[in-house]
Amino acid sequence: MASPKLVAMANNLLVLGIESSCDETGVALVRASGKLTPNLLAHALHSQVQMHQAYGGVVPELASRDHIRRVLPLTEQVLSEANQKLNDIDVVAYTRGPGLAGALLVGAGIACALGAALDKPVLGIHHLEGHLLSPFLSTDPPEFPFVALLVSGGHTQLMRVEGVGQYELLGETIDDAAGEAFDKSAKLLGLGYPGGPALAKLAELGNPTAFKLPRPLLHSGNLDFSFAGLKTAVLTQTHKISKALGQPVAAWSDIQRADLAASTQAAIVEVLVKKALAALDETLLPRLVVAGGVGANRQLREELNLQCAKRKVRVHYPELHLCTDNGAMIAMAAAMRLQHQVQEASQDYTFEVRPRWPLATLGIKD
Question: What is the Cβ-side half-sphere exposure of residue 108, based on CA atoms within 13 angstroms?
């Protein structure tokens, strides 16, 4: 059989991508042709948010079981929407890590079984690389090299990206990530799961300067982040207000909760923006890519657009519906790795997942 990377360079290559790292099941089909940017043909996503809301967070066992139920029906859906047959697939890509071990095993197991049944190669993809390359699915894709701000779930990182598979870590969080700061602060304010979007929505009604909250490591002189202290400050503020009012958070007025939400969001956004700008200054690169769930935050986008425009720096985002975990980013990352001859797909259907997998080590062999 010809090497899939050579096939990708010469012909149309149909890549099926499966994402199952946490609480969203995503499946997508991407067409790679020569050196052109791969084209998204169809994608489908099932969110488990409603199932996990009763527990206030993701229950790993429930997540894994739901992935089992969803992957094959979603695969049938995207094949139908793309007018493709199962045997048309050239490569089956899946999320190898990082993520919840059980959830990753579901996607990896189904992908490898499907590859074996079709006699087609498979390719394990890094979840964060999927986010990193997801802006290439947008109507305004970036060009290499660029600085990447990855704000996804438990990850907040700044990377220098020279090309596919060429990633240098510039800075990362030393404790809580930005997404965790959003979610934990939302929980303190009595907001539902998922907390980040709920806090952002409430913040639109509040005054971002109502409360003076810390901006950890803002003047540290490096590109690392820290959001644990901000979460503690929000906790302290909720206790202070509740004591003054003689009422629990649930009994606060809407404007009081909105003001604290807006102040919390302002602190997170200011740190993310200033660190991203510092990374651009340090690297002298002319482009910034923002990816991951927090990349959908409206306030973050507005502030980055404003500041980057002043510096004549291009800033790129994934489409809003592709900021969360999805199969399209996994299929895209696989197609680009094959196109750029960074990695070959394999017909060895044994697999292992990597719940913890630093993106900066991606170019180093296991």
Answer: 24
